[in-house]
Amino acid sequence: MKANRREFWLDSIFGTAFIFLLMWVFYSVTAFKVFDLFDPIGDALGDVELTDVVFSQLREPAIPDDRIVLVNLGRVNRADIGYMVDIINQYEPKVIGLDTYFRTHKDSAVDATLQDALSRVGNLVMGSKLETFDEDKNEFDSLGKSLPRFTQYAETGFVNFITDAQTQEELKMTREFTPKEMVAGQQELAFAVKLAQYLEPEKVNRLLKRDNERETINYRGNVMDYGASVYGTMFFALDINDVFNQNFDPSLIKDKIVIFCFLGEYLGDRLTIEDKYYSPINSQFAGRSYPDMFGGVVHANIVAMILNEDYIDAMDDTTGAIIGVLLCLINVAAFSYIYRVYSKWYDGATKLIQLVEVLGISFMNVWVLDKFNYKPELTLGMVAIALAGDSLEVYYSVVKNSVTGLFKSRKRKIKL
Questions:
Q1: 175-214 b/e with 16+ CB inside 10 Å = b?
Q2: pLDDT tens-digit readout, 333-345
Q3: DSSP letter at 104?
Q4: 47, 121, 391, 416: which has the highest count of C-beta atoms within 10 A?
Q5: Which of 65, 374, 47 has its CA nearest to residue 220?
Q6: What is the pLDDT of residues 25-67, one digit of tens each?
């Protein structure tokens, strides 16, 4: 009896090891990456994660955050940007952020107009760009900035987003950001973090003390025209004419964070995809056709998350791996019992159990994120569960029989 029990658990352990060996082969040796089947789930969902449904479908509509205002730059030239900055600046914002670059010289009069306007801003943050990562030093070796004549009046914050896109033409989904990066030995804060620092420095300090290399963006909403008062959109935005005609209440600006950024040819421009990303709050979370959020709005969502200290905590990779191994071992033990005792029912029973488990874990991930702002990372366990049934059959019928046959053959030769 003890020998049978010992053999059962040895088979469960070796079967689990065999499944992870297969996963490693699929992931590392072949072009097929088995993990991509589950996070996101299936080719039909493209770059969608199941947890996107929390942001796009389950949450209550957001109440507009009036601490952050966006100003559309459209296609205006530098002189007009200078005029717009002057108009906004006279209403005493806490900080002005410019999510754009001025890296080449233009007409001297035009550049002078912008420079003069920037010189009058009390608190100014200009976007920078992380360039060329040095893997040996684990830092970026350079930082792209606007011309010194403009940046001399400002602090900088990097505007890079984390996406899977390799080219401008590819899908750009952004779910995470890095609060800080090292650049040639110096720390550079993210653009949104730098802006939030002017309004709530203690909250930014607490963010940095979390010391997470990446933070999941807790998206709350998109933009709306000033005065629209649409429940469910998060940030007020002024279009070019709104600024030039001063078509806004001065209280909208005073002591607020104002982000100048590109929001299309005009507010509500849905066709322009320049500096535009897919976000998890996209109501069409599967089969997306157009990106839904401009980069400046992504920054605004990050700022709001910091000001609200409304972070999403994520399971670390080590914990996820441990849980994945335990889930696999439990399933292998259960399937091994079915294989030995109810062999005729093996295929149907294991497939049903796998389906129930994968669906259960998927819905649990959604529920936990929605209720507790916590993102479990159980992809490894889900893949192991999905492979366990068929892989265990291969283990028993091929691997174990081959090894057992090899040992028996050696024993015969020794006796002879």
A1: bebbbbbebeeeebbbbbbbbbbbbbeeebeebeeeebee
A2: 999 999 989 888 9
A3: S
A4: 391
A5: 65
A6: 877 765 444 445 444 444 444 455 777 878 877 777 777 889 9
Question: Do the Cβ atoms of 207 and 193 come closer than 8 Å?
Answer: yes
Cβ(71)–Cβ(88) below 8 Å: yes
Sign of CA dihedral 293, 294, 298, 301: negative
Q: Which two tokens stand for residue 34?
A: 């088995």
> Do residues 284 and 250 touch, judged by C-beta distance below 8 A?
no
288 CB-near residues (< 8 Å, 6+ apart): 46, 48, 278, 282
Residues with Cβ within 8 Å of 83's Cβ and at least 6 positions away in sequence, in order, are 113, 117, 244
**Beta-strand relationship, 124-134 and 139-144:** antiparallel
Within the chain, which residues score under 50 in pLDDT? Answer: 31-35, 37-46, 229-232, 414, 416
CA dist 360 → 21, 237, 269, 357 (Å): 25, 41, 40, 5
Q: What is the chain's Cα-based Rg?
A: 28
> Which tens digit of pLDDT belongs to each residue from 205-238?
999 999 999 999 999 888 875 555 444 458 999 9
